[in-house]
Amino acid sequence: MSIKDDVVRYVARLARIKLSEKEVKLFAQQLDQILAYVDKLKKLDVKDIPPTSHVMVLKNVFREDQTRPSLTKEEVLKNAPQRKNDFFKVPRIIEET
Amino acid sequence: MPYEPVIGLEVHVQLKTKSKVFCGCATEFGKVPNTQTCPVCLGFPGALPVLNNRALMSAIRVALALNCTISDLIKFDRKNYFYPDLPKNFQISQYDRPLSYGGRLDVNISNPRKRIGIRRVHLEEDTGKLLHEEKDEISLIDFNRSGIPLLEIVSEPDINSSEEAYRYLTMLKSILQYLEVSDCDMEKGSLRCDANISLRKMGEKTLGVKTEIKNMNSFKGVRTALEYEFERQVKILESGERIVQETRLWNPEGGVTQSMRSKEEAHDYRYFPEPDLVPYILPQELIDMEKKALPELPEARKARFVTAYGLPEYDADVLTQDKDLADFFEECTKYYENPKSISNWMMGDLLGYINANLLKLKDVKLSPQNLAGLLKEIDSGKISGKMAKDVLLEMFKTGKDARNIIEEKGLVQISDEAQLEIFADEAIAENKKSVEDFLKGKENALMFLVGQVMKKTKGRANPTVINEILRRKLSKGV
Amino acid sequence: MAKDNLYAKTACELLDELNKKTIVSEDIVESVHKRAQDIDKKIKAYVILEKESAIKQAKESTLNKSSGKLKGIPIAIKDNICAKDELTTCASKILEGFKPPYNATVVEKLLSEGAVIFGKTNMDEFAFGSSCENSNYFPTLNPWDLERIPGGSSGGSAAAVAADEAIMALGSDTGGSIRQPAALCGVVGMKPTYGRVSRYGLIAFASSLDQIGPLTKDVHDAALLLGVIAGFDERDSTSVKEDVPNYLDFLVDDVKGMKIGIPKEYFVPGMDVEVEGAIREAIEVFKKSGAEIREVCLPHTEYAVPVYYIIATAEASSNLARFDGVQYGYRCSDAENVLDMHERTRGEGFGPEAKRRIILGTYVLSSGYYEAYYLRAQKVRTLIMSDFEKVFNSGFDCILTPTSPTPAFKLGERLDDPLSMYLSDIFTISVNLAGVPAISMPCGFTKSGLPIGMQLIGKPFDEGMLFRAAYTYESNTDWHKRSPKL
Fold first, then answer.
1. If you ran DSSP here, which 8-state letter would residue C176 be given?
2. According to the model, what pLDDT value does residue B384 have?
3. Which H or E element spans position A77?
4. Mean pLDDT of the C427-434 span
5. Inter-helix orientation angle B443-456/B463-476, to 10°
6. What is the pTM of this model?
7. For residue range B215-245, what is the model confidence (pLDDT) as tens digits?
8. What is the percent of chain B where pLDDT is above 90?
């Protein structure tokens, strides 16, 4: 199967990465190669095999409902590229899907 | 109307835990922005989530109260999408193995009650809060809310009217309140509701194209918005057009729903299992124990009020909708023997006061013992029922008991006949015309004279006694 | 004791001297720092090297009366591990200027044992790479041949230890990122069992695969460092409540009766002849020491790289979504709206390999492809895990393989062919997929003087066995005593 440029553009939008046309074409080609390689997984019969999400057989890890000290406002905001008073500031949001 | 609405409701409820669902930050409302946050709920690089035990157990209790089945394996998934109030640009939620599924909620709208299916109840984390500043074309973000545990309760599309939707919501809120898991305050955002509505011809089984309605800020708002949307869709269908599948925002001022930019495709959330959280398997004994430990829920309490206190169903319904109200009622019955009387005063004056002043029961300073005390004063004839209303109002505000207020204000009812005779004589002497009118047959004239005596006694005359005295005197022609 | 060549010692040797009070911590820091000043302009292992901070910590350590397992020892930290109020950038432009307001758990543990945080080392951006060429800063060079790469993604840490610019270092390993550079630089590197070391504060690449581990000059130091950073952490839900043994107890020169498996799938045609030769000789060393060597099968080995590149990129695409210019790091200029800000920040802030992996990862999770790729890869992962389980369950104590199919390749050699770059990880990747521990150590040199590494793979939480085998090998060889000519 081959990855078309359109697919790369669609995925780049999902991932919120702006790609140049050159990048789109390069990635389409490289992704094609990589996906062709990973296609070898299709050779295996995995119908009855359970998927592994976690390698260690851990379950039921909790914490108690107790408060812990939060960061100070300054610690939180000190890395902010833009801020206004106590808030992080971002440009307007156009309702987009 | 040949069409019926098919409605599904999606309710998000903030759970009232001390700390957030995946970290130890506090969950208090209204704090200075970005002061209840930490690397975890801010989504700082390197931070990892750890599940709050109490959030999980509260969620289980809600699921059990809604008769859901608890999943034998509970897991969390990442819901991936970009939005500035979502710090990691994914939300830890649940996808294919939610906490619970397959429950029901019976709504009081018909007899027998209407059963609304609950498709699922699952746990997830809340997002931060955005403030939009139109003039500067910027948005501001406060992450205090990010990470607060959220329960998502999704109904089956079994609701067929806006009124059913309203009752579903009030019933759900009632249950959540009884479980003490949430404040359920739509104004503070601890309870939010979105609706899906489609239309179909009566009697059909297939579903029509649905629209999603958001931004409804009260239960009444939900009802009104659904009514509007139903009409809007009817008009479209009747004109031969098609419904566009879209999300619409309810505009309460304008009384209309408005289209957001229409979604051509559904979001691709790319769900996959959350690798930073392990699965949860709750032993059946634990689930059974939780089920047994559920408090008496509204329906059960209502039924008990009918049988134990002999209350009519209507009264029981009103009193049990709110847990605090029901608790108040039951406490009061310990001090006063006539439950119906308590009920009348609570449903009438107490609820009237609360609703008119947009208060909650806990804001009113009346105690159950004091209400009982007031009712006893009425029974003993010390004050009239009408007087009692004023006394009660004073009790709401001051928290004092009835006896104190009556004495302070000198409101003791005058029932002594000798005293009242003097007032009666005065009223008769001063209002000759009324006397003539009464003798001519106008009953109203007697009421006028009673009123005059009430004025003189500042309302303290025992109405029954003065009524009798006046009638006797007038009939004798004195 | 001569203080100017302290930089060339191991941590254990230095702890001994510190104990005897022949030196103080500042002496070590001065020595290592001078060494770094002399040679790091050639190697470029460090991205942050602040002498004042290290000296200050060293002085405090000397004054502090409390004892600590690493008291006074300077340690270099890979730049994807959070150090409070220090620049932590994952060698990426998108995190430029980021100073986390908290320490990673491993850093807290190091500090509580008296260690001195010496500097931050270079890496492939977000750990995406096997050569350290994907750094936003500069490539790090292999101390054994400055025209070659040191391996990746913990290339900076490995090169620094190899060049004696660091006494010990921490790296992270998702598909071989500690072990492969360790092999290419001739040092010891270990990836612990998944869940052995806390990931809290490690900037995530692939959450179900990442682990932090030691890079050191010898096995003794690796055992010492692992003993400090290992252990349950309540802030990491995937951290395991398994007791941490005293790994130093396992440092015995004795493998009599140890059953070592040699997987036939790891000796492939076209493999570098010198690498194969070195491994075969290493096997002989173990045989002579009394170990039982037998061939084993790990039949799903050929599927490891494809499985990894689906699972790891999928998880990475989600983990890296948070880098969007909102709260920290780089933000593009003059964004018109949030969508524009997100897209251009990420388009400008990420390097090409990061973008490639995020695109691939997003693709394999997207609607319509989830079953065909991600779900399928997770199932094959189960098969790979069970390959290891079967071998261990049949009585083997560890498995011996080459770490890397080739010695260090030249700078730029594989940059244009991502797939060939991915295949450098072919021997290390299965280990992360299975979650088992593995250690790489030097086992020879090519004729041209490039290090060759051997990998020992163990059972979950059986790092002790690996240390025993590695220590025995090291005691009977002296590859680890060689140093690059700088």
1. S
2. 80
3. helix A73-77
4. 97
5. 120
6. 0.91
7. 999 999 999 999 999 999 999 999 999 998 8
8. 68
Residue type, B337: E
Q: Which residues have CB under 8 Å from C190's CB, separation 6+?
A: C178, C179, C213, C214, C222, C226, C437, C438, C439, C440, C463, C466
Q: Is C153 a catalytic residue?
A: yes
| Distance separating alpha carbons of residues C8 and C210, to the nearest angstrom | 30
* Chain C residues in contact with A32 (beta carbon < 8 A): none
Categorize the per-residue pLDDT at C1 as very low, low, confident or very high, splitting at 50, 70 and 90.
low
**Residue B387: burial class (beta carbons within 10 Å; 0-12, 13-18, 19+):** buried
Comparing A83-92, B208-217, C268-277, C428-437, which segment has the lowest mean pLDDT?
Answer: C268-277
Nearest to A82 by CA among C323, B141, C339, C321: B141
Kindly determine whether residue C378 and residue A51, on different chains, have CB atoms separated by under 8 Å: yes
pLDDT value at residue B264: 46
Kindly determine whether residue B19 and residue A67, on different chains, have CB atoms separated by under 8 Å: yes
For chain A, say whether B47 makes contact (Cβ under 8 Å): no
The alpha-carbon gap from B241 to the nearest alpha carbon of chain A, in Å, equals 25
Judge: B23–A16 Cβ closer than 8 Å, yes or no: no
pLDDT tens readout for residues C215-234: 999 999 999 999 999 999 99
Q: Which two tokens stand for residue A58?
A: 């851990």
Contacts of B39 in chain C (CB under 8 A): 100-102
Contacts of B276 in chain C (CB under 8 A): 207, 237-238
C-alpha dist (Å) from residue B8 to B108, B153, B213, B301, C236: 17, 11, 10, 27, 38
Burial C43-64 (b: 16+ CB within 10 A, else e): bbbbbbbbbebbbebbeebbee
Contact A53 B75 (CB under 8 A): yes
CA atoms within 13 A on the CB side of B449: 33
Tokens of B379: 């029974």
| Residue C78 appears among annotated catalytic residues | yes
Which residue do the tokens 């669609």 mark?
A: A10
Summarize pLDDT for B44-59 with one digit per residue, the tens. 999 999 999 999 999 9
How far CA C144 is from CA of B168, C159, C278, C324, C451, in Å, comes to 73, 9, 18, 39, 8
Per-residue pLDDT tens over the stretch A15-70: 999 999 999 999 999 999 999 999 999 999 999 999 999 999 899 999 999 999 99
DSSP helix/strand/coil, C44: coil
HEC letters along B403-427: HHHHHHCCCCCECCHHHHHHHHHHH
Rounded to whole angstroms, the Cα distance separating C316 from C350 reads 13
pLDDT band at B266 (very low <50, low <70, confident <90, very high): low
**Other Cβ atoms closer than 10 A to C30:** 19
DSSP run (H or E) holding B123 = strand B114-125
Peptide bond before B112: cis, by omega within 30 degrees of 0?
Answer: yes
DSSP SS3 for B17: coil
pLDDT value at position B262?
A: 53
The answer to which of B366-370, B395-399, B440-444 has the lowest mean pLDDT is B440-444
- Least confident piece of the model among B160-169, B245-254, B429-438: B429-438
**Residue B381: both structure tokens together:** 């004839």
ω into C153 cis (within 30 of 0): yes
Q: How far is C433 from chain A (nearest CA, A)?
A: 8
- Buried b / exposed e over B76-102, threshold 16 CB at 10 Å, is bbbbbbbbbbbbbbbbbbbbebbbbbe
pLDDT tens track for C453-479: 999 999 999 999 999 999 999 999 999
In the beta sheet, which residues pair with residue C293? C260
Structure tokens at C168: 């010990």
Going by C-alpha positions, the residue among B102, B92, B105 that lies closest to residue B70 is B102
